[in-house]
Amino acid sequence: MKTTLLSILIISAATLLSSCESTTNPPSSGSTFTDSTLFALSEGGFGSNNAQLDAYSLKNSSLSSNIINPLGDVGNDIQIFGKRMFIILENSNKILSVNPDSVGDKISIPFPTGATPFKMAQVSSSEVWVTEFTKNQIAIINTDSHSLTSSIDLDASQTDIGVLGGKAFVLTNSNKLEVLDIATKNVVSNKFIGDYPAQVIPDEAHNAIIVLTYGIYKTTPGKILWVDANSYAVTDSIAIDTSTSVNMIIPAAGKAFVTFADKVSVLDLNTHKLSAFVAKSYYKGLYDAGTNGLILGAGGYSTPGTVEILDASSGMLKKTFASGILPGHFVIYRK
Predict the structure, then answer these.
(1) pLDDT tens track for 188-214
(2) Cβ atoms within 10 A of the Cβ of 12, count?
(3) What is the torsional sign of CA 281, 132, 85, 288?
(4) Which residues, 6+ apart, have CB-to-CB distance to 81 below 8 Å?
(5) Does residue 289 fall inside a structural domain?
(6) pTM for the model
(7) Tell me: the pLDDT tens digits for 64-112?
(8) Does some domain include residue 16?
(9) Is residue 153 part of a domain?
(10) Which pLDDT belongs to residue 245?
């Protein structure tokens, strides 16, 4: 399960702590949300059924906490497809479809026991492919009917998925990058990529796929790799110092931010060079081009944390609010 994938990296690293300037708690708002709402998903403790969804207005800094209670066990992905939010609740074996205008309007898409939905990517206007962390198949859901429609058999269970140029790039738990043609659903490439592949990012500007591998803490380094989207060959890579661990690559405008157990760095997508940004621990996050804000989750693996919004140019703290256990998955709802 997911604890196997992350325990080497998160538990062995120092507990993520929030140490930014203190602020007062934002005023509360209701359960109906409009333009420019940041939805923050906290994973919660594995097996504790305490994943948490918070809603924060970027316009007036008002906060609604834990807006669906109970939400489920291990919130691992949140995305907006069409006019609804889709939330993966990994250990609850379901995806929750929620109307962001009124979160009381929600539909559960159950997965079979042990299927373990993990990450998702939209491949057409009504079709989303979902990786399964414990089964050798990709699930296909229809976002109009809110139902599982079919699956694609693979040779291993999977972590992340990204889409570029009519292909789906899938990371598997057999340490491979598997490429599928979306139209035919056929596998066109299946190659070793590195220890514990965790994240795949399509880079359309460079016709490349960026892959993050966690490596094995203090044994083999994690890596950031560049894969040609046509030939599927690795064209470049950066090794991560084994004294630290890497959590996430956050795509931004012409660059990316990389969160580590002890810092955040900037990754130049043209030169493939890392440079210092802020010396602080964060888990995962999202870049908001509308405000040039870097939204980051901070906090421990078993205690509630915070969400901090930094200026993506200077690293200065702009806003912060309390959140659940291990916040790190975000979407911004804009009409």
Answers:
(1) 999 999 999 999 999 999 999 999 999
(2) 12
(3) positive
(4) 122, 128, 143
(5) no
(6) 0.90
(7) 999 999 999 999 999 999 999 999 999 999 999 999 999 999 999 999 9
(8) no
(9) yes
(10) 87
Question: Which phi-psi region, left, alpha or beta, contains residue 59 (left: φ > 0; alpha: ψ -120 to 50)?
Answer: alpha
Q: Is residue 180 part of a domain?
A: yes
CA dist 324 and 45 (Å) reads 10
Q: Give me the amino acid identity at 88.
A: I
What is the side-by-side order of every strand in the sheet holding 63-64?
Answer: 63-64, 52-57, 37-42, 327-333
Say what percent of the chain tops pLDDT 70. Answer: 91
37: its two tokens: 């709402």
For residue 124, the domain's CATH number is: 2.130.10.10
Tell me which H or E stretch contains 4: helix 2-6
Q: pLDDT per residue over 208-242, tens digit each?
A: 999 999 998 778 899 999 999 999 999 999 999 87
CA distance 273 to 327: 28
One-letter amino acid at 128 equals V
Question: Structurally, how many domains does the chain consist of?
Answer: 1
What are the b/e assignments for 57-92, b being 16+ CB within 10 Å? bbeebbbbbbbbeebbbbbbbbbbbeebbbbbbbbb
For residues 237-248, average pLDDT: 90
Which H/E stretch holds residue 5?
helix 2-6
- The residue type of 183 is A
Which residues constitute the domain of residue 172?
111-243
Q: How far is CA 153 from CA 136, 172, 202, in A?
A: 6, 12, 23
CA distances from 112 to 115, 136, 164, 185, 248 (A): 6, 13, 29, 22, 29
